[in-house]
Amino acid sequence: MATVSFDISFADQTTINVIAGKAIDLILEFGTGENSPDPLDIIMDIAATHANGTPLRLSDMAAADGYDLLHDIAGIRKHLDRETGKLTGHFRPRFAAPNDALIAEAQGAK
Prior knowledge:
With 110 residues, the chain is mostly helical. The chain has one domain. The protein has helices at residues 10-30, 39-51, 58-62, 66-79, 99-106. The chain is globular, with a radius of gyration of 13 Å. The two termini are 25 Å apart. The relative contact order is 0.18.
């Protein structure tokens, strides 16, 4: 059984922390059904997605407007298999890296 990897760079972790803070502010502002989301849950969901087969354009995500960021955060939270770190249900985040980045990652480039 595959386990979830959280193997990301310090720079990626720093950017993910920024994204999570922004996402929490948006969730609270727009009321997506979560009263008080746990920042650690959002951080771990983004990191797991990024490290387990769906690399994200984290810098673009951190700079995103509310609608696009909420789309990806809500989709990741809904479709993430927390045992494998893979996204299910054919969900692909808007800020997913292009396929050439997936190929480079599979060949060992980071």
